[in-house]
Amino acid sequence: MLHLHDITKPFTPIFFTDDCIEFLIRLYPNGKFSQYLKNIKIGDIIHVRGPYGNFKYESNSFQTIIMFSMGSGITAVYHIAKSIVENELEETKIHLIGGFKNILQIPLKKELQTLSDYWNFKCTLHISQMQNVCNIHGINIKSGRLDKNQFLKYLKIK
Ligand SMILES: Cc1cc2nc3c(=O)[nH]c(=O)nc-3n(C[C@H](O)[C@H](O)[C@H](O)COP(=O)(O)OP(=O)(O)OC[C@H]3O[C@@H](n4cnc5c(N)ncnc54)[C@H](O)[C@@H]3O)c2cc1C
């Protein structure tokens, strides 16, 4: 939870160590918190609470994990995917499926490409408003919204 001025909003860190924490935060033109954040200066103080939640992952407990995310929700699954594929002892395969409005709105492109170099990571992004055919090396790009049929296909449910 980040607290600035009179507002508190939840965010998922994409990276953290004992003395550093990194967030990926979408700036909404009319968003109250994100506009505060856009205007902060070095030296301003942001209060941090948490982390909250009790998601626990046990290494190698699944053959494959299929992750679905929309927009900035990718922050929630990216960190988990990264920690799994970077663990040499992991045999679990990850397929991260993300939905975005357009190519420009895809965050973490480089980071997702880096994960795609691992044998056990695959990424497919559905772009609902794709103007031209587009290629991002290492990532499968599909035009159109992720619909129910595709969702079931990814889960291999007939
Ligand atoms: C567990 C969790 C983790 C999250 N992690 C992240 C993260 O890692 N990164 C990230 O970017 N976000 C994350 N979010 C979302 C984040 O908490 C904020 O909701 C988001 O940043 C928007 O906040 P804001 O105050 O800037 O915008 P808001 O003021 O909430 O506005 C957002 C949008 O809604 C519109 N809007 C606001 N009020 C109304 C209304 N009454 N009617 C119609 N439209 C309205 C605004 O114009 C704007 O476009 C997370 C949320 C949760 C619950």
What overall geometry do the principal axes of the alpha carbons give?
globular
- What oligomeric state best describes the polypeptide chains here? single chain
Bound molecules: flavin-adenine dinucleotide
Tell me the total number of β-strands. Answer: 9
The CATH class label of the largest domain is Alpha Beta
Query: Compute the gyration radius: what is it?
Result: 17 Å
CATH architectural name of the largest domain: 3-Layer(aba) Sandwich
Largest sheet: 4 strands, parallel
In CATH, the homologous superfamily of the largest domain goes by the name Nucleotide-binding domain of ferredoxin-NADP reductase (FNR) module
Q: Quote the beta fraction.
A: 25-35%
Q: What structural category do the secondary elements indicate?
A: alpha/beta
Estimate the helix proportion, in percent.
Answer: 10-25%
Low-confidence stretches: none
Pfam families: FAD_binding_6
Keywords: FAD, Flavoprotein, Oxidoreductase
Family: Belongs to the flavoprotein pyridine nucleotide cytochrome reductase family.
Cofactor: FAD
Summarize this, please?
The chain has 158 residues and is of the alpha/beta class.
Task: Outline the structure in words.
The chain is an alpha/beta fold. It has two domains: 2-48, no CATH class; 64-155, Nucleotide-binding domain of ferredoxin-NADP reductase (FNR) module (Rossmann fold), CATH 3.40.50.80. Helices cover 22% and strands 26% of the residues. The chain is built from four helices and nine strands, in the order E-E-E-E-H-E-E-H-E-H-E-E-H. Flavin-adenine dinucleotide binds at residues 9-12, 23-26, 28, 30-34, 72, 75. FAD binds at residues 10, 24, 32, 34, 75. InterPro entries: CBR-like, Cbr1-like_FAD-bd_dom, FAD-bd_FR_type, FNR_nucleotide-bd, Riboflavin_synthase-like_b-brl. Keywords: FAD, Flavoprotein, Oxidoreductase.
